[in-house]
Amino acid sequence: MSVSEILVINGPNLNLLGQRQPEIYGYDTLASIADKCASLAETLGVSVRFEQSNHEGSIVDFIHDARQKSAAIIINAGAYTHTSAAIHDALKTFDGYIIELHISNPHAREEFRHHSWISPVANAVMAGAGAYGYELATRLAAEKIAQTK
């Protein structure tokens, strides 16, 4: 296991960041967010690997793969946050640190977004900080990884 890798998993529609509802999600693209996190991670002595899929099974596969390769997972599961017992169950198999991440604040939005299948298995939840939340989550994950060394 690479004890210094942070896997950042992005769910459905996050490939459209910067284009889709910028009034909610901002104008940063997923690629620009990944670049910022990679630069930050390097200064923190860790690495980040970004993955994105619109398919639930692929996200489960990313989590399974992380069991052997990653020390922490940051997951923005998009709408699957509110619907996926499969992602919940996969995260339960991961022994590292888990951060649930939301660009917007789901509790300030539609009621169906108030329930999370991920929160019960996450060590931390970050919401409402915009794209900057990815950098905050990267900092927290790096700190937790350093504490386990």
From TrEMBL:
Q: Where is this site: Transition state stabilizer?
A: R20
**Keywords assigned by UniProt?**
Amino-acid biosynthesis, Aromatic amino acid biosynthesis, Lyase
Q: Could you give a single Gene Ontology term from the biological process aspect? A: quinate catabolic process
The reaction(s) catalysed by this protein are:
3-dehydroquinate = 3-dehydroshikimate + H2O
Q: Which InterPro entries match?
A: DHquinase_II, DHquinase_II_CS, DHquinase_II_sf
Q: Tell me the protein family, please.
A: Belongs to the type-II 3-dehydroquinase family.
State the oligomer form and interacting partners. Answer: Homododecamer.
Q: What does this protein do?
A: Catalyzes a trans-dehydration via an enolate intermediate.
Name of the protein in question: 3-dehydroquinate dehydratase
Species this protein is from: Thalassospira xiamenensis
Query: What is the gene called?
Result: aroQ
